[in-house]
Amino acid sequence: MQIISTTQELRDRLKSEPSVAFVPTMGNLHEGHVSLVRQAREHGRCVVASIFVNPIQFGPGEDFDSYPRTLEADCAKLEGLADVVFAPAVSDLYPEPQQVFVEPPPVANELCGAFRPGHFRGVVTVVLKLLNIVQPQAAIFGMKDYQQLHVIRAMARQLNLPVEIVAGETLRAADGLALSSRNGYLSAEERIEAVRLYRNLGRVQESIVAGSKDYAALERTAVADLEAHGWRVDYVAVRAAESLLPAGADDTGLVVLAAAWLGRTRLIDNIEVCVSRRRSL
User: Fold this and answer.
1) What is the number of alpha carbons within 13 Å of residue 20 lying toward its C-beta?
2) CA atoms within 13 A on the CB side of 261
3) What's the pLDDT at 178?
4) 181 neighbors 266 (Cβ within 8 angstroms)
5) Cβ contacts of 94 within 8 Å, gap of 6 or more
6) 151 neighbors 131 (Cβ within 8 angstroms)
7) Residue 277 has what pLDDT?
8) Nearest to 171 by CA among 200, 207, 137, 198
9) How far is residue 116's CA from residue 123's CA, in Å, rounded to a whole number?
10) Which residues are catalytically annotated?
11) CB under 8 Å to 263, separation ≥6 — which residues?
12) Nearest Cα residue to 82 out of 41, 35, 130, 51
């Protein structure tokens, strides 16, 4: 496995590769990331994983400076799985102040985007930069960041990028908590409580499958339970999975998404819901 830190060196390394699969990460890797890298092997002969904490997707007061940088441990996890680790400096990807940005679709200003203004603009801009550098045939993104996956797919489709955006399933701990680099911020007590987010999503899912279409009431119930146990909730939302617009009564493919703070840690999660159409007699 090679560790490469500059764009030019990476381009030189990849120019003769017949097919490349790419997994972009911000490092501090866990088994969820590792599963995406394993999945990438199914989509390309050469697997590239990037490790880059992207400054332009963090807002004022967010955790850019404190975000864990664990390159040595990350590379140990990727040994034998990735062929190349691309770990550029900020000055390599941003050799001059970034004045050209990719404008994401309007839905990027809802859900997480409503609470992190400019976040998705920073995400899609750096992803486009990385895709231009790596030029993979496939790029793998985790479904835990459901809105991010949706926005990146829209970018690739609307900008005619020659890359397949592949979704990777969310990995969970035994109690259901979605694996996340930010789980490391949780105290021991908060880690026990953290599974409440997933359990509330599961209850919303069960209610929808059982026939409930009062999505607003289901959202309010989930928010109330979280707040009663000390969470600060950004949102719980039932959306159409394909568009991420508010779900209508006739939508059959849904996703329940949530973001909430437990102490100083912001957790996100989602569950997809398939609703069967009932024939009227």
Assistant:
1) 25
2) 7
3) 97
4) no
5) 55, 56
6) no
7) 64
8) 198
9) 12
10) 33
11) 185, 186, 187, 190
12) 41
Q: What tokens were used for 163?
A: 């890359």
Q: In what order do the strands lie in the sheet with 20-25?
A: 2-4, 84-86, 46-51, 20-25, 138-142, 164-168
CATH 3.30.1300.10 domain extents, the chain: 181-274
Superfamily of domain 181-274, CATH level 4: Pantoate-beta-alanine ligase, C-terminal domain (3.30.1300.10)
What is the distance, to the nearest Å, from the Cα of residue 142 to the centroid of all Cα atoms in its chain? 5
Whether pLDDT at 280 is above 50: no
Domain 2-168 homologous superfamily, CATH? HUPs (3.40.50.620)
> Which residues belong to CATH 3.40.50.620 in the chain?
2-168
Q: Are strands 20-25 and 232-240 parallel, antiparallel or unpaired?
A: unpaired
SS3 content of the chain, % helix, strand, coil (to 5): 40, 20, 40
- Tell me the pLDDT tens digit for each residue of 70-115: 999 999 999 999 999 999 999 999 999 999 999 999 999 999 999 9
List all residues 6 or more positions away from 97 whose beta carbon is below 8 Å from its beta carbon. none
Answer yes or no: are the C-beta atoms of 249 and 227 closer than 8 Å: no
Q: Shortest CA distance to 216 belongs to which of 16, 207, 276, 267?
A: 207
Terminal C-alpha separation, the chain? 62
Beta pairing, strands 253-262 & 232-240: antiparallel
Rounded Cα gap, residues 261 and 94, in angstroms: 31
